[in-house]
Design a protein that fits this description.
The protein has 2 domains: 142 residues, Response regulator (Rossmann fold), CATH 3.40.50; 101 residues, Arc Repressor Mutant, subunit A, CATH 1.10.10. The termini are far apart. Helix 2 links the parallel strand 1 and strand 2. The chain has 9 helices and 14 strands.
Length: 295
């Protein structure tokens, strides 16, 4: 029997709880933005989804709140007075891998890359729709609850790159390389499919937990660029993280090209040709032995 609901909003909240696994518990989100209207709209929308929301209007307050509370996700504006979002992200990443989504009016690639290099999981460019924000939040929470926690601790080693699941770090040619959570997940997936091309769509789904239409189209390229800077001697000429044109990327171990065994010259001795003309000279072949002998 179909049960009717007199409260459309409650039915919508129930749908959110079913669709998003982590929403079955109480998710605590920190919203950091110096624009009051954006803070209020985000807080109201997130609360309707069933999340607990705390807001901060500048970076200093955000850091104080972070030290005093436990958050499951942070929406962080970049351009703020006094302490900006880059600084907040960097400070938080020193002690925590809580998911961070940068909110930015900066659409310049270098600024976006800087935020991701500091450890942000994704970014949203203003102006944005809440549907876009919702898609990012759901994907990140699915990833952090389902993919990362379920991943078995293991060690992957191909060529001179060793990925340690226990340390969540890599060593390249014996040198330790620090990785953000996203970089670790990306490298883990590529090394698990060593020398096999992996599509951008597959990486978006498996590493970020997104559908291709749910996120920024260039986030994979930006992440690969960051990872190359850490793994390659020359990021502009990668030898490990290879672009497969028209497909995506692959991890190829460095220095494992197939080597042919050295060719050992053999000396071939041939019988004297007794039927050769008597005037023939006695000769020695470089490739064989005595070529001919005449009395």
């Amino acid at each position: 029997m179909k049960r009717s609901s007199g409260n459309g909003s409650q039915a919508s909240d129930d749908r959110y709880a079913v669709d998003n696994p982590i929403a079955r518990g109480k998710v605590h989100v920190l919203v950091v933005d110096d624009e009051k209207m954006i803070r209020s709209l985000l807080k109201m929308s997130l609360q309707r989804m069933g999340y607990e929301v705390t807001t901060a209007d500048d970076g200093a307050e955000a850091l104080d709140l972070f030290q005093a509370n436990s958050f499951d996700l942070i929406l962080l504006d970049i351009l703020m007075p006094n302490v900006d979002g880059f600084t907040v992200c960097s400070e938080i990443r020193r002690v925590s891998d809580v998911p961070i989504i940068m909110l930015t009016a900066l659409n310049r690639p270098d600024d976006i890359v800087r935020g991701l290099e500091l450890g942000a999981d994704n970014y949203i460019t203003k102006p944005f729709t809440f549907k876009e924000v919702e898609a990012r939040i759901r994907a990140i929470l699915r990833r952090t609850t389902n993919k990362i926690e379920a991943e078995p601790v293991q060690v992957l080693e191909h060529g001179d790159v060793r990925l340690d699941g226990g340390m969540r770090a890599a060593t390249v040619a014996g040198s330790l390389v620090e990785l953000t959570r996203t970089e670790y997940q990306l490298l883990h997936y590529l090394m698990s499919h060593v020398d096999l091309p992996v599509s951008k769509e597959d990486l978006l789904e498996r590493v970020w937990g997104y559908e291709a239409a749910d996120t920024n189209s260039n986030i994979v390229e930006l992440a690969i660029r960051r990872l190359r800077k850490k793994l390659e001697e020359d990021a502009s000429q990668p030898s490990r993280l290879i672009t497969v044109r028209g497909v995506g990327y692959k991890f190829t171990p460095k220095g494992l090209a197939t080597r042919l065994p050295p060719v050992t010259p053999t000396i071939q001795h041939r019988r004297p040709n007794l039927n050769a003309p008597r005037a023939a000279k006695l000769e020695y072949s470089v490739t064989g032995g005595w070529d001919d002998e005449s009395a």
